[in-house]
Specification:
Layout: H1 9-19, E1 37-44, H2 45-53, H3 63-71, E2 76-85, H4 98-112, E3 117-121, E4 123-127, E5 130-132, E6 145-147, E7 150-154, H5 156-170, E8 175-179, H6 186-196, E9 200-201
Parallel strand pairs: 1-2, 1-8, 2-3, 8-9
Antiparallel strand pairs: 4-7, 5-6
Length: 202
C-alpha cells in the first residue's frame, strides 16, 4: 500500500488515473533520493486480477509498461518483472474462453518482454467440499448442507515469498515492489525489511 507521505506525487496521480480511485492494493515502493536503484517487481497475478482488473477494461494490462512508465520514479532501474499466476480452469470460469484468453495474454507478455519478464506458474486445485448454507432456501427449507466447487490457487504465495527472500540474500535487487494484497506474505516482507539486508521494501 503506497504511503502518501513518502510516495512521489506523480505516482499517486498515475495510480488514481489508471484505476479511477485511490487504491490500497498491494505495496508500491518508490524512492526519490537521486540514486539509481536496481528494482524487481513481484506481481500476484490472480490477486491483481480479482482485486482490480476483473470488472474493468484493463484485462490486457501491459504490466511491465505500467510500472516502468507510470509507477516507478526515474531513479528506478527496472531489472525484472516477476508475474506469479496459475493456469485457469475452464470449469471455474464464467467465460468458456477464459483459459484460452489467459494463455494468449501470457504469450503476448512473453513475446513483448522476453528478457525482462518471467512468468512463474503454480496450479489451481479444485475440490468439491460440503458447506453449510448461510440461510435457508425458501423452496427447500430442509436443505442445510450443499456440495460446492472450491478452487484454490497453490504455490503462488510460496513462490513469491521464496523469490523475495532469495533475491534479498543474493543481491538480485536493491528495491522490490510487491503487488499483492495477501496477508500470507507478511512474514517474507518483514524478513526482508528488518533483518536480512539493506533492501528497500514498502
Amino acid at each position: 500500500m503506497y504511503d502518501l507521505s513518502t510516495t512521489h506525487p506523480l505516482t499517486v496521480r498515475y495510480i488514481r488515473l489508471l484505476f479511477g480511485r485511490q487504491t490500497t492494493f498491494g505495496w508500491f515502493c518508490l524512492l526519490w533520493n537521486g540514486k539509481i536503484i536496481k528494482t524487481t517487481i513481484c506481481i500476484d497475478g490472480y490477486n491483481l486480477y480479482y482485486g482490480l482488473l476483473r470488472n474493468s477494461k484493463l484485462k490486457w494490462l501491459d504490466i511491465v509498461r505500467l510500472f516502468s512508465e507510470y509507477i516507478l520514479d526515474k531513479n528506478a532501474e527496472l531489472t525484472q518483472v516477476r508475474y506469479y499466476t496459475a493456469p485457469a480452469l475452464g470449469r471455474m470460469s464464467d467465460d468458456p474462453m477464459s483459459t484460452q484468453l489467459q494463455r494468449l495474454y501470457l504469450q503476448a507478455l512473453r513475446k513483448m518482454y522476453p528478457n525482462s519478464l518471467e512468468i512463474i506458474q503454480g496450479k489451481i486445485l479444485a475440490t468439491t467440499p460440503y458447506q453449510r448454507l448461510v440461510r435457508p432456501i425458501n423452496e427447500v427449507p430442509e436443505l442445510k448442507i450443499v456440495q460446492v466447487y472450491d478452487f484454490n490457487e497453490k504455490k503462488t504465495n510460496v513462490n513469491l515469498a521464496s523469490d523475495l527472500i532469495t533475491g534479498a540474500w543474493t543481491g538480485a535487487y536493491e528495491q522490490a515492489v510487491v503487488c499483492s494484497n495477501d496477508s500470507d506474505l507478511e512474514g517474507a516482507l518483514a524478513a526482508v525489511r528488518g533483518t536480512m539486508c539493506n533492501c528497500e521494501l514498502v
